[in-house]
Amino acid sequence: MPIMMHDRILMMGFEPGYPRWMGNQALAGGGILMNNGVHYIDRMSYWLNGDVNQVFARCGNYVQDIETDINGMLFVSLSNGTFATTGLCWSAPKTAGTCLAEIIGTEGIIEVLTWKSPIRLVTKNDSNWKEIPIPDGNGFLDEMIEFISAIRENRPASVTPEDGRAAVSAILAAYESNE
């Protein structure tokens, strides 16, 4: 049973070719918290099976000449008693880019390196990490296929508009916490 999660999203933002509108507060509505943090909230809520109860956040921009936040830390507590943290950074060197989630449970730990395979896990009875390969694929394409299938099959999509609203609400609460 999951009890907590730590997530880390490190990437280089605003390099040549990066959409410049994302650095404009009026157009983007926020920086890394709004752009990447919302995905963290979504997957954290799904993996830990709980709704966000409370968010404590710090974010800012001390490096780049843009209006939006490029670094942030979130501490989130969920309705089921679990909690999670994340560090988000748009100022990491490109070669250091990573998206790593660690889910700590009552029986062990799962590591998910989002952009790479395999998933790693270790239980309290193991002496070594086990690797579980994941099939090659395109997560964004899989999301669109699921959405189109829901429409064609006249059924609710596995991710609802309410899920999206909850994730954005949590990020807005994070910005409020930062203030």
Structural description of this entry:
This protein is an alpha+beta fold and 179 residues long. Helix content is 30%, strand content 31%. The chain has helices at 25-28, 32-48, 139-152, 161-178; strands at 2-10, 52-60, 71-78, 83-89, 98-105, 108-113, 119-123, 130-132. An eight-stranded mixed sheet has the order 2-3-4-1-5-6-7-8, with helices on one face. A hairpin with a 2-residue loop joins strand 5 and strand 6. 25% of the residues are buried.
What's the mean pLDDT score?
90
The major beta sheet can be summarized as: 8 strands, mixed
Strand order of the biggest β-sheet: 2-3-4-1-5-6-7-8
CA-CA gap between termini: 34 Å
Along the chain, the helix and strand elements come as EHHEEEEEEEHH
Q: What is the oligomer described by this structure? A: single chain
Low-confidence stretches: none
Structural class: alpha+beta
> How large is the count of helical segments?
4
Shape descriptor reads: globular
Strand content: 25-35%
**Helix content estimate:** 25-40%
Radius of gyration: 17 Å
* Number of beta strands: 8
